Automatic annotation (TrEMBL):
It comes from Pseudonocardia alni (Amycolata alni). Transmembrane segments: none annotated. This is GAF domain-containing protein. Belongs to the CdaR family. Gene3D superfamilies: 3.30.450.40, PucR C-terminal helix-turn-helix domain.
Length: 603
């Protein structure tokens, strides 16, 4: 029997695009069925499924029922209601994780109900996969796809389904909030208790302001946080899962946040899905709310004080903050993907540019006809993703293209590196910003006369060469362009390498040949002697030899090059040759060298 084929495995880009589109809907679309219907259609498209649907949980009856469908043909299937733990739907909605079957009716591992089996048979369904929809620590239902032929669920398809289940839960909560606001307005108008009416007024006003913040700041959670901070009337802060402050006042020291009392309160909030209170030994009382979704800790709200009204408002805003953080992350991921795709088209000759290149460049202030700056951030490849995120977070980086490319971080910005010192503009901002973020790096900069692929590729190559040359010359941080490298920079612009080889051969060749034949270290000695300001003692320290050894080696260089190398012009040419040799890396014409500690002049 042939194994069942898999559901299509969507690419990461396709998943992020679907998530990003849903995030935009969360801020712009008010109609519940329109928003959730769009989630179902995107889920079907991602997984190539015949149908998609989601259910809502009825905790009182212990069942889950299908609420909205896309692609379902029969009314009986649309009206399915199942006890928790039965079938795929009942198991996923009970929070059992992602559940999948390649052939539902034939799968004896599932708990079947005869009436449901009849409905499934009538719809012609074979394969079903479902993921729980969680919000604020609660399972509110399940998102499912089904196919009228056997299908297995691969890892990428599973990831896509789980991502869309999160989006469906958030969309459901967003629309539920809108419905709750309308209900509260009706209750307020009908109510006769002045105290209750006042409390409802305050709650209604908070919800309306939070909804407005969601629509007005779709790219960040700061808008929702600002409304909440004003509403609770207490000092408030928002921290990422590691405890780092994201926004708000710093209420606690890093040591206090890492202490067992606050860590325990955060865990309690995560598990219970509500506000937890922590009392510190010094007398401070804090309310903490872990913002979670699908078991993931997104952030933590910390409020000074714990009066009942403020705690209730904090808890009430949990869903809004969850939505805001998910929207923020989805949009950031979608933008990162778009930037990566665009950078590859611009600097990788193997990737042909798409017809929409000009339009997409304009989103970042770039034009095929306007000059640009290309930066190459030379970092350890293992830290490239972290460095790229740090660059995106810099002030002024809003319209830069930033992407990890070929093991380094590539930045493309409108404008030039400037007529002044190396990299005036983007380069020093990146170098200084990374240093301040604890990721000191070396930044190579190059000017591109236009934002077109050909010019940008040449500039990218030059920026990479500049960064490599600066590192070879002993720099580990800061920024450089070809002009800041002086004569070395001018020479490395010769892409053939002919000029560099001729300079090295003419002014340093005899020394390199001697080192190769005698396995000595004359060239290295010259390098450290120049670096030490032509002083013997510091050069000897750098080489771990006696100053007399350095002096004798320099005398050997006299024998090889003649006395003219010590004149100002001779020293300039020799130092340039040494720098070019250093930039080129180990000379292929010389063998390994060794120093056995001898004070003999040639060594």
């Amino acid at each position: 029997m042939k194994p069942a084929p898999p559901f299509p495995e969507p690419s990461q880009d396709a998943i992020l695009q679907a998530v990003g589109q849903t995030a935009l809907d969360l801020a712009d679309v008010g109609d519940r069925d329109v928003m959730l219907g769009a989630v179902l259609r995107r889920t079907r498209a991602l997984l190539g499924a015949d149908m998609a649907y989601f259910s809502l949980n009825d905790l009182h009856s212990g069942t889950t029922y299908i609420e909205l469908t896309d692609g379902v043909r029969t009314p009986e299937y649309r009206a399915i209601r199942m006890p928790f733990g039965t079938g795929v739907l009942g198991r996923a909605a009970a929070g059992a994780g992602t559940v999948a079957t390649a052939d539902y009716l034939a799968d004896q591992a599932l708990n079947h109900l005869s009436g449901i089996d009849t409905i499934v048979r009538g719809e012609g369904v074979r394969a079903i996969a479902g993921a729980p929809m969680r919000l604020g620590g609660r399972v509110v239902g399940a998102l499912l796809v089904a196919h009228r032929g056997p299908r297995t669920l691969g890892p990428a398809a599973r990831t896509a389904l789980e991502h869309m289940a999160v989006q469906a839960a958030v969309a459901l909560e967003q629309t539920r909030r809108g419905e709750e606001i309308r209900r509260l307005r009706t209750t307020r108008d009908d109510g006769s208790d002045p105290g209750a009416r006042l409390r409802l007024e305050h709650l209604l006003h908070l919800d309306e302001r939070l909804m407005g913040a969601m629509a007005g700041s779709t790219a960040e959670a700061a808008g929702v946080f600002a409304v909440l901070a004003e509403s609770v009337g207490h000092p408030l802060s928002l921290h990422d899962p590691s405890g780092a402050l994201r926004t708000g006042r710093r209420l606690l020291t890093p040591e206090e946040l890492a202490g067992w009392r606050l860590r325990s309160a955060v865990r309690t909030s995560q598990q219970a899905g509500g506000v937890a209170i922590a009392h510190l030994p010094g007398g401070g009382t804090y309310a903490l709310l872990a913002i979670t979704t699908a078991g993931e800790h997104l952030a933590t709200l910390v409020m000074e004080g714990a009066d009942d009204d403020a705690v209730a408002r904090l808890a009430h805003a949990s869903a809004f903050m969850t939505v805001a953080l998910l929207v923020e992350r989805a949009l950031a991921q979608a933008d990162e993907t778009a930037q990566t795709t665009l950078v590859e088209e611009l600097v990788d000759s193997r990737v042909p540019p798409r017809p929409t290149l000009g339009t997409r460049l304009a989103q970042y202030g770039l034009s095929p006809d306007a000059p640009a700056t290309v930066l190459v951030v030379d970092v350890d490849p293992a830290g490239a993703v972290t460095a790229a995120r740090a660059v995106r977070g810099l002030d002024g980086a809003g319209r830069w293209l930033v992407s990890v490319h070929d093991g380094h971080v590539c930045v493309i910005a409108a404008g030039t590196t400037g007529p002044g010192p190396a990299g005036t503009g983007a380069a020093p901002l990146v170098a200084e910003g990374l240093a301040a973020a604890g990721t000191p790096s070396l930044v190579g900069a190059a000017h591109s006369p236009s934002g077109g692929p050909s010019d940008l590729r040449r500039a990218h190559t030059e920026a990479a060469d500049v960064a490599a040359a600066a590192r070879a010359l002993g720099r580990t941080t800061g920024h450089a362009d070809f002009a800041s490298l002086g004569a070395v920079g001018a020479v490395i612009r010769d892409r053939t390498g002919t000029t560099s080889r001729e300079i090295v051969g003419r002014h340093l060749g005899p020394v390199l040949d001697y080192d190769r034949r005698r396995r000595t270290r004359l060239a290295e000695t010259l390098w450290h002697w120049f670096a030490a300001g032509e002083l013997l003692a510091p050069a000897a320290d750098a080489l771990s030899v006696h100053p007399n050894t350095v002096r004798q080696r320099l005398e050997r260089v006299d024998d090889l090059l003649g006395p003219d190398w010590r004149t100002p012009e001779g020293r300039f040419h020799l130092h340039l040759a040494l720098r070019l040799h250093r930039v080129a890396g180990p000379d292929r014409t010389t063998g390994p060298v060794a120093d056995h500690g001898s004070a003999v002049a040639g060594r």
